[in-house]
Amino acid sequence: MNLVKAFVDYLQGQHVATWEQDMFISRAPSSNKVPNRIFWLKAAGGGQEGRSLNGGSRQQHVIEIYHRDTSSEGVYDTLQELGDNLACSGCVTLEGYDVLGVETNGPWTDQDLDNEERTVGLLQVLITIRKEC
Amino acid sequence: MGQTIKGPFDFKYGANTLAEIEEAGVNYDVDSDDVTTVQGHSRTFFGAHKVSVEATFLESDVPSLAVALPQYYVANGEVLSTGETVTDAEGAIDIVPGGCNAAATSESLIISSCGTGGQVARILECTTEFMGFGTFDDKRRSVKVMFTGNSDNATIQFFKKNAISVVS
């Protein structure tokens, strides 16, 4: 399972949203098919933090969580609360990954270019994992 | 033409593989005396050699530390220095300085470079000691262990993997 999907499963377990109903990967489906209030996650790169002498590495991956809704303040509040929960989540467990830490940047909000009645927000999540080789 | 010895490296203490090592600082000291003669010459006399390796363990759970610090390992069912009985199969580590019952063990520290044609650096008859913590932050805890060579023979040997026979 890739890291983004593992993180989707984690968010679903935290009752943030439901995979393939109001939470998606890579892009938001057409507005005709899904409600206004949805989340979608995108992989946004990352880098290596360090290596062990045995060849293992510590990698930081960036996942962007996008959220849209008709209430601009609601979008910001939702993402701020999600960021706070991730920061205070203690040991985050992602299936198949040894997670060392989770940090967040943001959130940011802006008008949805596809629908002027909606606001889109962004929360960047930085997940540090240990990769043993 | 020579070759650069490249990582990643495997670390063994005796026959046991050591856990993920974040970094290893190798210290090799040679005593020396400088003597000058009335003829105006300076001579250096080399004496005792000492070798030690301070390894920072990224994996610092009980089973990982038990391999490097066997003298401090308390098995399941045995009693800690504070009187509690260990009730987990993994056991516990009880760092008791200079304990009367601490059994000093001595094994070679074997550092092998990668690949089938890799090179080995072997530090003979090392005792180990707990040297505190490396990183201890929100992401990880690492532990430092010092391996000190105590051999009456060579301090350190270099050879290609599988290039030496077993002592008969």
Order of helices and strands of chain A: HEEEHEE
Q: Into which percent range does the helicity of residues of chain B fall?
A: under 10%
Question: Would you tell me the structural class of the helices and strands of chain B?
Answer: mainly beta
Round the Cα radius of gyration of chain A to an integer and report it: 16 Å
| Structural class by sheet pairing and helices of chain A | alpha+beta
Distance separating the two termini of chain A: 17 Å
Low-pLDDT residue spans of chain A: none
Major beta-sheet overview of chain B: 8 strands, antiparallel
Quaternary form: heterodimer
Number of H/I helices of chain B:
1
Task: Report what the structure shows.
- The complex is a heterodimer of chains A (133) and B (168).
- By secondary structure, chain A is α+β, with helices and mostly antiparallel strands.
- Helices cover 20% and strands 43% of the residues of chain A.
- A 5-stranded mixed β-sheet of chain A has the order 1-2-3-5-4, with helices on one face.
- In chain A, a hairpin with a 7-residue loop joins β4 (98-111) and β5 (119-131).
- With 168 residues, chain B is mainly beta.
- Helix content of chain B is 4%, strand content 48%.
- Chain B contains 1 helix and 10 strands.
- The radius of gyration of chain B is 20 Å and the shape is globular.
- Chain B starts with 9 loop residues before the first strand and ends in an 8-residue tail after the last strand.
- The A-B interface holds A 50, 52-56, 100-101, 128, 130, 132-133 and B 7-11, 20-24, 58, 114, 138-140.
